[in-house]
Each structure stands twice: as structure tokens, then as C-alpha cells.
Design a protein that fits this description.
This protein is an alpha/beta fold. It is built from 14 helices and nine strands. 40% of the residues lie in helices and 18% in strands.
């Protein structure tokens, strides 16, 4: 770590920003394990989300990769600017909300997909994952530490209690794996929950093909709004708005209308979306 939280607070007189969900990782061995899990090469372009006091940054710098640090807290951004510039002047620090960061533009400007790492603030984990999915072609892989509850949802299988909208949509574009757990005692201030480190490997267009992410998100969200109802009922209004009868749509997608949404795989939802869109996506025939 570039500096410990206690040293930082004593030096600056600043207190932890609870509204920003700041919990600083204090165990270097865990930080190193997270960075190594991303398998970073010197040719990679890496975006670190919420670098804070540099727990992960210190292990990213020796990798020799192009590194972009996105930090909302102005005080921490200033600290990083001074501390990191002495070790690697080429690192770019973006003082902004990562939800407003333009990943697509960065990927286009460097001519390659991005690697994203970070200890995500609990209050933005889900919104950030949705943002990444909207820009999914911009990424090759991501390694995040998230609240345990969120991590279980990200990697959940159909039919489980954790399986939901985020599980389905992520499954359309990436392979997600839980790597290891991290207890509250490894942070300052200490959170009330456990954390999980997860890795996502993106695959270009993934299962969705040419189907727009915005359309798929609405479809999946509509189905899960009434997750205990059968698809015959939960998607009735949605299919009618698209000029089709739900029974016919489900039949063409080879899905039993008596099933509930939490039993459908990401591929099932893609088939359903392709029929609703009138797409020629080859997944439907498969």
C-alpha cells in the first residue's frame, strides 16, 4: 500500500467518506492476489476503479501496462497524483465518477479492448456492471472485489435464489467465476459484510449477437418483475406491445410457457429476444 488509511487520515485530517462507500483494503497479499488474478501483460490497457490509497495500484505499476485510475474523491485523486507520478509519470488519473467514464472512447483510442480491476464501492457495484455490459465490446476481462451478495448474483446459475437480471445479462456477454472470499477484517474502516473477488472474461458480442443490449435488458427485467409467475403471464404485455402473442413467441423460441423466468438460461433469453425482434440470429435455429 502506498500509505495506510491511518497514516492518510493523520496526515490530512480527512475522515472516511461513508457516502462514497469507502472501505480501504489493508492487506497487501490480498491486493497482490487480485492483481495477479487479472493476468496483466505489459501490452494491456488497464482501468482501475476506485484506486483509493493505492492498494492495488502499487502492484499494477510494475506490470508496465498503460494505466488509468478513476477516482471520485478529489482528495484521494490529489494524493494519487502526487504519489504515483513519482513512480510512473505516464499513469493517467481521472477525477470523476466511474459511472460517467467513457470506456468505449478509451478502447477506440487505444485500438484494443480494456482490462478493468477494482475494489468496487458497495453502492455502485450493480450500476457499474450494467454500465460495463452496455459497453461490452470495449472489454476483454475484469477482476472486481464486490460485496458477497453481489458476487453471488453475478455468478449465479439458473434456478438458484441468487439468479436474476444481472446474472442473465452478464451470462450473455461474459464467463464469470468467483475466485476467493475476503473477510471484513481486511478493510479499514471495517465493513459489516464479507466480500468476493470475481473475474469476468468478455467475449465480444457473446451470445447476444446483434441484439441490442438495451432491448435485452428490458426483456429480462420485465420477466423478472414477476419472477414467481410463469412466462405466459410475466411476458404477456411485453409481447403484445411488440405485436406478437406470448404463446406463439415462446413456441418459436422453443420455451415452455409454463416455465418461470429464473429457470431460463441466458441463451434461452437470447432465443426469446431474437424471436421478438424478428432477428435472423443463428442462435435461434441452434
Amino acid at each position: 500500500m502506498l500509505i495506510s488509511p491511518n497514516q492518510y487520515y493523520r496526515m490530512t485530517g480527512i475522515k472516511s467518506q461513508k457516502p462514497l462507500g469507502q472501505h480501504f483494503l489493508t492487506q497487501p497479499c490480498t491486493a497482490l492476489r487480485i492483481v495477479e488474478s487479472a493476468q496483466i501483460r505489459d501490452s494491456d490497457v488497464v482501468v482501475e476503479v476506485g484506486p483509493g490509497l493505492g492498494a492495488l495500484t502499487q502492484f499494477l505499476l510494475p506490470k508496465g501496462c498503460a494505466l488509468h485510475l478513476v477516482e471520485l474523491d478529489g482528495n484521494l485523486a490529489s494524493f494519487l497524483r502526487e504519489a504515483v507520478s513519482r513512480r510512473s509519470p505516464a499513469v493517467q488519473i481521472h477525477e470523476m465518477n466511474v459511472l460517467d467514464f467513457d470506456f468505449r472512447t478509451l478502447a477506440r483510442s487505444v485500438g484494443q479492448s480494456l482490462v478493468v480491476v477494482g475494489n468496487l464501492p458497495y453502492n455502485i457495484s450493480s450500476p457499474l456492471i450494467f454500465s460495463l455490459l452496455e459497453a461490452h465490446p470495449a472489454f476483454s476481462r475484469a477482476v472486481f472485489m464486490v460485496q458477497k451478495e453481489v458476487g453471488l448474483r453475478l455468478a449465479a446459475d439458473p434456478g438458484t435464489g441468487e439468479y436474476g437480471v444481472l446474472s442473465v445479462l452478464l451470462g450473455m456477454y461474459a464467463q464469470t467465476k468467483i475466485l476467493f472470499g475476503v473477510g471484513p477484517g481486511q478493510f479499514f474502516p471495517r465493513p459489516k459484510v464479507d466480500s468476493l473477488v470475481v473475474r469476468m472474461d468478455f467475449s465480444g458480442e457473446g451470445l447476444a449477437g446483434e441484439l441490442p443490449f438495451s432491448f435485452l435488458r428490458i426483456l429480462v427485467s420485465t420477466a423478472f418483475q414477476q419472477r414467481r409467475k410463469t412466462l405466459r403471464n410475466s411476458l404477456k404485455d411485453f409481447s403484445l406491445r411488440r405485436g406478437a402473442k406470448v404463446e406463439e413467441v415462446l413456441s418459436l423460441a422453443q420455451i415452455d410457457p409454463g416455465r418461470r423466468p429464473e429457470t431460463l438460461s441466458p441463451l434461452d433469453f437470447v432465443r426469446l429476444g431474437a424471436v421478438l425482434k424478428g432477428s435472423r440470429n443463428p442462435v435461434v435455429a441452434g
